[in-house]
Amino acid sequence: MTAPTPPFRDPRLPFAKRVDDLMSRLTLDEKTAFLHQFAPAVERLGIAAFRTGQEALHGVAWMGPATVFPQAVGLGATWNQDLVRRVGEAVSREARAMRARDERVGLNVWSPTVNLLRHPLWGRNEEGYSEDPKLTSAIATAYTRGLRGDDPVYWRTAPVLKHWLAHNNETARDTSSSSVRPRVLHEYDLRAFRETVEAGAVAGVMPAYNLVNGRPNHLSPHLGLHLRTWTEEDLLVCSDAGAPSNLVDSEHYFDTHEEATAAALRAGVDSFTDHGTDSSKIVARVRGALEQGLLTEADVDAAVRRQLSVRFRLGEFDPEHDPYAKERDFDTPEHRALAREAAEQAVVLLKNDGVLPLDPGTRVAVVGLLADECKLDWYSGTLIHRSTPLEGLYERFGADRVSFAEGVDRVRLRTADGTFLHVLPSDDVPDGARAAEGALDPALLAGRTDLPPLTTDATGTELALIDWGEGVLTLRAPDGRYLSVAEDGYVRASADQPGGWVVQETFRLEPHENGHLLRHTGTGRPVQVAADGVKVAADDADAEVFGLTVAERGEDAVRRVASAADVVVVIAGNDPHINGRETEDRTTLRLPGQQERLLRAARAANPATVLALVSAYPYAVDAGTLPAVLWTAHGGQAAGTALARVLAGDVSPAGRLPQTWYADDADLPDLLDYDVIGGRQTYLYFEGTPLFPFGHGLSYASFGYADLAAEVGDGTVSVSFTVTNTGEVAADEVAQLYVRAEAPSVPRPRRELLAHRRFTLAPGTSTRVAFDVPLSALAFWDVAHGRWRLEPGPYALLVGASSEDVRLSTTLTLDGEPAAPRPVGEHGLEAADFDEQSGTEIVDRTKTAGDAVTPAAGGTGELLYRACDFDTGVTRTTLSVAGTGTVEMALDGGAWTPALSPSALSAGPYDYTELDGAFTAGGVHDLRIRLRGSLRLAHVGFSG
């Protein structure tokens, strides 16, 4: 007889019942094994192995050739949800097609990144969409819908949002804490996640490496308090790589890994990404936690259930019903066309005095370190097709009308004995492009050792020296290969591009005696010349002292071609693996010095110089002397063709800046200052003059705005207006709607994006643009009462082409909930619910939940709580504190009370004691609290 089909295999049953059945059949050991990223097969039940995590930020990454779309920040610059949805759909189709031939390719995709681009020096700026939560959630929602697919039951891929929460620094990223006040938490950081999750195409989130308010994100109470309340779907929380071990090893938050693993699991982490493919350590920690009573089987069940929910939605148990099971679309003509369309739509025209578009017969000089490059980043796939700006302009204008100078310094390195570094020929060695074969963890890819190391001879090899800023440089051989150091320590011309988790292709020239040490940055060791070849030395004592012989300066080559052209296009920007990347923040907005020199040389030789920035982040450049400036993120496989078509006018640019471009480093807050309100950060609060504002982008056409209408309906503000193409070419426009509270009781944004739309208009045609905005979008988080509140009063509605280019405006007076004083006489105060602060930071009240406030660096800090209602009067105060120090209080601008201080040293930062003192107040007053020392204040109560 045939055995009956178990319920978990029955596609007629709801997924929840099928998960219940499968859970009942799994042993505790089997369930425990599922908690690691690489969940093993359960052969007795016919369940296959499963891996959480497949990078797919702008194409399937790390698994070999795939269609490469523009970087995420470039997709954000399109301001086009329909386009981004189609990109997500193409990426998920390729993931399915690639999995059909390589089971290592996963369908639980770790994309998109919805961290807000609060600070432009963040090394991972390329991964986010925008500094604005509304735009970020709109683009992320579009991408996740494409990744998910449109079948009502089964998902093509299962997207996981990165990185929960308030994560914008690589500097000390696993030990630094983001101090996030409640208003910033709700109005800014949570908002992008919330609106994306509520849209219904998200399978989970990944916590970030950092801490928030003193507590590691992998223990975030907001996973339960907020995230899992936003949807009825089971959300899978996957740890970031190595982060579970960080709880003990670098953060020292727990003494043992059993405690840490148990705490993360109870907080809501379901899948532990740690120790690569080796699950034994995580499994042992979970078993130890179970044996010690730190976990129950129910805790394990909750996590496994959420993982299985995702696997069922992916069709794993219903291959015959899965509509995506036979997906084979890969590198199709449609995907190639979409890659080009996305790259074209990502181009932002920042300035144009009429030099663009280029006339068909223009003689163009293309110069710059990125002119003949198609750069990839850490989360790219391997290119199948490749287009550089130079190739795109050759194709568009003809090679006879395009000249080129890369602008590298051409040098030879002379040893102390008068010989020169020499690159041996390697024509018979096959090409070995990094990651062409794919890798589950490309950080483990080793450098090539099948090529001969460098030697020395009397003439040497002329090398292309590129200074990427801050003294970091690359050296490239005439055959195009970069000097690199493999695990054996020898220096070879072996890399097609700089790259890798630890970049092995960068060096520094350090002045030493009468020459320079050539120090390899990846190992930190200097280069020496040995009998068996050039390699890194054990220490500086064995280092070679090199002289630098310059055959040609890059500026000279640039001047030569620039002076003979009608127009010069300088292609400048960054290499995504150097000076600003995952693990490394930038230190300045300025272009690297070598690129600034090339730009000046081109401009001096030819005033008709166009600057095209190809970069993962904003720059502060001197745009005043240039007739035209463009920006695009690294645009993927079609980047060069797209840029050339925009320069030629085949496409009118319509990208818009997804973040503020600041004019100077002095305009930036500290990298670790996460208080966008108090720090006046992003376009929402910045009060200075930006180089280019949020939402900015020019066109080859012009557009008129007219006939603004706005009315308040049933919980909605309806806004409409007419846009007309008053130019001579068909073009896209991006209409933007902002709001500003005109009489707020608390600091509110200068203006805040409510809605936007990108559309195409032929010359002379018009369209009516309409938005329906829920009134809730105009609310703010009222810290006095711990909830959202729509404030009554006038609100300006601003319509235009950017956050600063406002064409139409009107004011509506809205009904709302008037401000009410804080009922402190009845409920007291939570310390973190301040209105303003100086010199303090928010820390964890306990290791599981709650916030406290402490002076920064053990100094002095002040907190202000406005409109505190002490009712008929109080005579005593009780303060919940831990640590050592003093607390003083004052009403309005009055005198400080005598300092209160714990009478005995507390045992630790979580050992709270109650301080009781005299404090007399009645009615409504502003309350100031001053903290000194290492004291933590959690709550203030009043009585009497």
Fold and architecture overview:
- With 944 residues, this protein is an alpha+beta fold.
- The longest helix has 21 residues.
- The chain starts with 14 loop residues before the first helix and ends with a strand.
- α15 links the parallel β24 and β25.
- It is globular.
- It is built from 18 helices and 45 strands.
List keywords for this structure.
single chain, six-stranded mixed sheet, 944 residues, 20% helix, alpha+beta
Would you spell out the secondary-structure blueprint of this structure?
Layout: H1 15-25, H2 28-33, E1 38-39, E2 50-51, H3 72-78, H4 81-101, H5 133-148, E3 160-164, E4 177-178, H6 182-198, E5 204-207, E6 211-212, E7 215-216, H7 222-225, E8 236-237, H8 243-249, H9 257-267, H10 280-291, H11 297-313, H12 333-345, E9 348-352, E10 364-367, H13 389-397, E11 402-405, E12 409-414, E13 420-422, E14 455-457, E15 463-467, E16 473-476, E17 482-485, E18 491-495, E19 507-512, E20 515-520, E21 525-530, E22 533-536, E23 547-552, H14 554-563, E24 567-573, H15 593-605, E25 609-614, E26 628-632, H16 639-648, H17 682-685, E27 703-712, E28 716-725, E29 731-741, E30 752-761, E31 766-774, E32 780-782, E33 787-789, E34 793-800, E35 806-814, H18 824-827, E36 829-830, E37 836-838, E38 840-844, E39 851-855, E40 860-869, E41 874-882, E42 885-891, E43 913-921, E44 924-933, E45 936-943
Parallel strand pairs: 3-5, 4-6, 5-8, 10-11, 10-24, 24-25, 25-26
Antiparallel strand pairs: 1-2, 6-7, 9-26, 12-15, 12-23, 13-14, 15-16, 17-18, 19-20, 20-21, 21-22, 27-28, 28-31, 29-30, 29-34, 32-33, 34-35, 36-45, 37-40, 38-39, 40-44, 41-43, 41-45, 42-44
